[in-house]
Amino acid sequence: MDYIFILLGGFLSTFIGSVVLAYFLKGKKLLSDSKDKYHAVHSGDVPRSGGIILYITFLLVSSFFSEQLFLVILAFLPTFLYSVYEDINGDTPQKVRLVFMTVSTFVAVILTGLSIKSAGFFDIPEFLQIPLTIFAVVGLTSAINFIDGLNGLASGVSILAFLFLGLASGFLGNDYYMFLSILFAFIVFGFFVVNFFTGKIFLGDTGAYFLGYFLGMYSIYLLNNIDQLNPLYPLTLVAYPVIETFFTILRRLYRKKGRGRDFFKAEKVHLHTILFKRHIRISNSLSSFLILQTVFLFNLLAFVFIENISYQLWIIGTEFLIYWLSYKFLFNYKTDKIFYKSISEEKERLKEVTLRT
After folding, report:
1. All structural domains of the chain with their residue ranges
2. Can you tell me the distance from the alpha carbon of 294 to that of 284, in angstroms, rounded to the nearest whole number?
3. Three-state DSSP class for 123?
4. Are the beta carbons of 71 and 87 closer than 8 angstroms?
């Protein structure tokens, strides 16, 4: 019964906090995400302060349950402060953000001793463990930020990851870590409900960075504490944002080489953006729901084959292929005929049709 009250408390803390912040910041420019941003998919200015609620809640909760996780979250403080500054003042240089993320991850690793020690098929040499950990966590931090473009998408992916990490912990006989994982899922769920169903508050860069950072460090925390946990299992759970990041890097490298455009400039061609803007259109949240359904199915598959390293790779590879095929279809469908046509070209086509009839 006590566990239920703790879970409910975690949910209510972020739910009520999100509602209160959304109400008091409504119509104010402070901490608001403008509808005029290049890659915006919303109408009206929306508070991007959800990350503040999440960070404070996670920090307080971890102080009661785990000193290591408390230090992990405390180490994020420099990035948290910079991200809040970014949410207030608008976009800042991505290179600077990467520096802050790297510093926070490095401090967390030094303070806690957490690191990636195995890749599943082989152990990681000790001299590579810290660099690999920093690369993986900073990469996932950026990955969650990349998919934070629709209501509930980034937070939904994070909730599913926490839940399936909890299922794995319970399956392997670690009830404490199962409870901790579910608690973290409930905390994020409080924000998710407000964001997904109303769109009145966003994660902001603070929230997206924190979820990616903590999800990465928490996965490593579990791998360091549960010997039986498959090292590739956490990666399979976040395969979607990782694959999105991979394709984003490829697109930007091509854009920089072929068109001379800035590698770090934001874009409107992430999978979730194309799905919503060119196809679903009527509902931001519906687009998220469709993607989250797919992520859930792959996570379920990963859990079913949790003890098999090779199967985890097959699942990641299958998700990669489905992502690529989906992107190719969604991007090209009607593109040549409608989406990229200028108004004048469309008018000329209509004139020709009229003359023929």
Report:
1. 2-343
2. 16
3. strand
4. no
Q: What's the Cα-to-Cα distance from 250 to each of 253, 270, 280, 331, rounded to whole Å? A: 5, 12, 26, 16
Q: Are 2 and 10 in contact (CB under 8 A)?
A: no
Q: Are 111 and 75 in contact (CB under 8 A)?
A: yes
Give the integer Cα–Cα distance in Å for 295 and 334: 26
Token look-up 């930007």 returns 252
Please name the residue ranges forming H helices in the chain.
Answer: 2-24, 50-65, 67-75, 77-89, 94-112, 126-146, 153-171, 175-198, 204-225, 233-237, 239-259, 271-274, 284-304, 309-332, 343-356
Instruction: List the pLDDT tens digit at each of the 357 positions of the chain.
Output: 588 899 999 999 999 999 998 888 776 666 555 554 544 454 557 888 889 999 999 999 999 999 999 999 999 999 999 999 888 887 777 888 899 999 999 999 999 999 999 988 889 999 999 999 999 999 999 999 989 888 899 999 999 999 999 999 999 999 999 999 999 999 999 999 999 998 889 998 999 999 999 999 999 999 999 999 999 999 999 999 999 998 888 878 876 666 666 666 666 777 777 777 665 666 788 888 888 999 999 999 999 999 999 999 999 999 999 988 888 777 665 443 433 443 344 445 445 545 544
